[in-house]
Amino acid sequence: MRIANHHVSRITAFLLLVEFAVAVAAVYLGAVIRFFDKHSLYLPQSDKFLLSALAFAASIIFSMSALGMYQINYREGLRNTFLRLMPSFALGFGIITLVFYLLPELYFGRGILGLVMIFAAIMILAARGLIFKFSEVGLLKSRILFLGSGALAKECRELAMNNIAYHQYDVVGFVPLAGEECKVPESALIPQTENLALLAQRLNVGEIVVSVQNRRGGQFPLQELLDCKLVGVKVIDAAAFIEREACQIRVESLQPGWLVFGDGFNQSFLRKFGKQSFDLIVSALIFAITLPIMLATALLIFIEDQGPIFYKQERVGKNGRTYMVLKFRSMGSDAEKSGKPQWATNNDPRVTRIGKIIRKLRIDELPQIINVLKGEMSFVGPRPERPFFVDQLCKEVPFYNMRHSIKPGITGMAQVRYAYGASVEDSVQKLQYDLYYVKNNSLFLDALILIETVQVVLLGKGAR
């Protein structure tokens, strides 16, 4: 399903709603058990208690989302799910405790809270256990057929077979076209001896992925694909399939016409106004929350080597305009004494002791909030790059300049889905996430990226 242009697994959305309801129910169950009386049944009915239950459920769901619990892996089993659930509940406990401190009228007591945490964990594990059981018997699988057997079909097959986080697919096979080099197992080929629509119905196929690079000439069965749609079989382009499953737009197989005539790239006044408001509110809030951390960081940087606290560097922003990005200095003052820009590396010797910590926790990025407040950046968007590397990448990577059609961000799709970019190859991978964001950006997607950023910061993912 699509929410504000972003592809969301129906199973993930359903599980989130179920677990939110389960968390609310756990609060009421905890209250009933805590005040159980054999002569009468205690049922809390006040609006305040309902708000308390909703606050608890929101805290738990946010914590689970932030620590990646909705990046579902059907093969991990209940034991690993339980081990992943415990840190989420610990974070959730901290958040709900803060909520009770700020809004004491919502507090429902330690006795109830202890029972609620236990009941919520058990019920959420049970809900996930049912999902895993359904997946084992194949009830959640979708039967798909690929039209084509070349390199693009191979890439789509690997994505369908390895994507255990959101969908499970039963790959029926591949219908080859004449003149195309076979890149998939020959055992998976299905010779087309009948109309494609009849073949799809006979094989009980729900979706056909058109994974053919060259669609010119009389060999491409356009009329048969139309027949498939008319009998209820979904037909999807390989680029759209990759976009849906990987949240990427693959540059090597991308056709400009698909970008021109497809959905997305919303740059309306309403979208711009909403994003600017979102940036200002989030930036001001995070600045207020992290101000003590930033003051402590500035002091530690100065104590370590008495050098400059902040580091300014020219970056490329919207429409190719340059600006000076502001960061906490995490490298020595002579990090680029040769005068030539260079990629960061693992265990980079230029990084200071304090720098290693603040880069791991992404604290060095916090001063960029000032760039956001000045209107040079957004809070969420493609990460800005230096002009030296932009000139290089625009020559080597197709469509690279498209990422400059919107403001760069402190965090972004590539930052939460891919490791630190330190080469042209890494930049291509990150660009594919950035193109997805540029095409499908919305306040909903911005909120999801911010939630995933919490996981990146807490677990130190991708830092160098």
From TrEMBL:
Cellular component, GO annotation: membrane
The membrane topology noted for this protein in its Swiss-Prot or TrEMBL record is: Multi-pass membrane protein
User: Where exactly are the transmembrane stretches of this chain?
Assistant: 12-36, 48-70, 82-102, 108-131, 280-303
Where is it localised?
A: Membrane
Domain (Bacterial sugar transferase) spans: 275-458
One matching Pfam family, short form?
Bac_transf
Report the GO molecular function annotations.
Answer: phosphotransferase activity, for other substituted phosphate groups
- Provide the alphabetized UniProt keywords: Membrane, Transferase, Transmembrane, Transmembrane helix
| Entry similarity comment | Belongs to the bacterial sugar transferase family.
- PANTHER family associated with the record: COLANIC BIOSYNTHESIS UDP-GLUCOSE LIPID CARRIER TRANSFERASE (PTHR30576), UNDECAPRENYL-PHOSPHATE N-ACETYLGALACTOSAMINYL 1-PHOSPHATE TRANSFERASE-RELATED (PTHR30576:SF0)
Name assigned to this protein: Sugar transferase
Organism expressing this protein natively: Undibacterium terreum
